[in-house]
Amino acid sequence: MKSFLDHHFLLNSDTAIRLFENGANQLPIFDFHCHLNPQEIWENKPYANITQLWLGGDHYKWRTMRMHGISEKFITGDADDWEKFKAWAETVPHLIGNPLYHWTHLELKMFFGIEKILSPSTAHEIWTECNEKLLLPTHRPRGFIAKSNVKFIGTTDDPLSTLEYHDLLNQDETFETLIAPTFRPDGALNIESASFLSWLDQLKNITGSSIDSLEDFLDALKQRVNYFHEHGGRASDHDIQKLDYSEVSEEVVTAIFNKRLNKETLSEAEITDYRSYLLKALGKMYAEKQWVMQLHMGAIRNNNTKMKKLIGSDTGFDSVGETNFAQGLSRFLDALDQEDSLPRTVLFNLNPKDNAVLAGMMGNYNEEGIPGKVQFGSGWWFNDHIDGMEKQMKDLANVGLISHFIGMLTDSRSFLSYARHEYFRRILCNIVGNWVEQGLIPNDMDFLEQMIRNIGYHNADKFFLQR
After folding, report:
1. Across the strands, what pairs with 152?
2. 394 with 400: CB under 8 angstroms?
3. 349 - beta bridge partners?
4. Beta strands in 156-231 (DSSP E)
5. Which end of the chain is less packed: N or C, by CB atoms within 10 Å?
6. Can you name the residues that pair with 292 across neighbouring β-strands?
7. Sheet of strand 29-31, all strands in order from the earlier edge strand to the far edge
8. Spatial contact of 48 and 78, defined as CB atoms under 8 Å apart
9. What value, to the nearest 5°, has the Cα angle with vertex 120 and ends 116 and 121?
10. CA-CA-CA-CA torsion for 441, 445, 446, 452, nearest 10 degrees?
11. What DSSP element (H or E) covers 301?
């Protein structure tokens, strides 16, 4: 019987162990999608205690605490930090089978040297040990990034962002990690949102544009794309809850845009036409800059209206959507490709039933000299567990070229989440190791170890930075 979280954790064969030790272990990290705050990195924010670092914005943990029956007072409420940590420790033993159980203990081990199991009986001891180490300069954001050997961080940024902290970090010769902004134009695409007109006013202010027409609007967005590019941006990201795509004329969308400027209500068909037109226009802007376009598809956001009113959006009440986006996605990618304007693209799905859709879709659009121009992104959010990652990689391998896969991302607000990259790499090595052990692929360790290194780091580096 293996020990929990031992040196060979998740590695179930001698070949898997060798692949991890010689291929994946000690690789740097290219974290191309996350939600870290660059200001906290620039300021090297100190944390008074482990609760502030670990639980402050982690809706993964909040969600399971609620499912365990913990009062909101001890999650996002006004309980003190020790009480919140104690509530988390009470929840952890019940997480067996959930990746949070593994991540929690991996993070304690990797960043604090703690190998105890977190539970009510060990909570105070672990609280004390963590808080003592958080007094050290090595246990601040820059220290966690350096310890994890992170070479690239792609943050997620509103087009209205000034990017001042990205600039400060990239001008700081003492900080070696490249921090790049990612263009996330949800505010522009969600024309039906109550906040759309106020977002538009802010866009006017930051660009100095009047934005009295659709043409003005597109010019202002292009100005912001150029601004992001000048400040190191090389990618965009889109929250696509459903993708219904229609080819629509500029005249039709101009009328829709003007209707919204006049505060009139839009129909579902008009919203679809507007989004289709704008997505295509943005895709062409990205292609001109040779950016990567990321599409995160299939989430149902803020399901609990009562809690959204009480504590706000994006607080742990999202779930997996049920929608058919195969036709819309095909039309969208094809519309760009027909005009030679399809950027390098990463497709993420939240519902695992759509794995075959994306694994098959990516092979439709290619470009000489760009291996894997359209990527099937790693198991995301509700799929970033053992079964989800294995299924995504096997579904990719079944119909594509897993050797060109760009690998893992944290999609996190936590500086400790780099443990997820090791988690992914161990799962990857175990899959490939099992294929060797079963005689499904040759025992060519030189090739396989390099493939592991490529998937773990180098493919993403080439894909996003073209080097």
Report:
1. 30, 178
2. no
3. 297
4. 178-180, 182-183
5. N
6. 235, 344
7. 29-31, 150-154, 178-180
8. no
9. 60
10. 80
11. none
Please write the tens of the pLDDT for every residue from 284-317: 999 999 999 999 999 999 999 999 999 998 899 9
The domain locations on the chain are 14-45+150-465, 46-139
Do strands 319-320 and 344-349 pair parallel, antiparallel, or not at all (unpaired)?
Answer: unpaired
The answer, yes or no, to whether residue 65 has pLDDT greater than 90, is yes
CA-CA distance, 314 to 308, in Å (whole number)? 8
SS (H, E, C) 343-384: CEEEEEECCHHHHHHHHHHHHHCCECCECCCEEECCCCHHHC
Could you tell me the CA-to-CA distances from 236 to 120, 138, 191, 464 in Å, in that order?
Answer: 43, 32, 19, 11
State the DSSP H helix or E strand holding residue 133, giving kind and residue range, or none if neither: helix 123-133
Cα 61 to Cα 88: distance, rounded to the nearest angstrom: 8
One-letter amino acid at 39 equals: Q
Of 393, 338, 333, nearest to 363 (Cα)? 333
pLDDT above 80 for 15: yes
On whether the CB atoms of residues 460 and 346 are closer than 8 A, the answer is no
341-384 pLDDT per residue, tens = 999 999 999 999 999 999 999 999 999 999 999 999 999 999 99
Euclidean distance between CA atoms 340 and 337, whole angstroms: 5
Residue 323 in this model has a pLDDT that exceeds 90: no
Say how many Å lie between the first and final Cα of the chain, rounded.
45
Q: What is the pTM of this model?
A: 0.97
Which CATH number applies to 14-45+150-465? 3.20.20.140
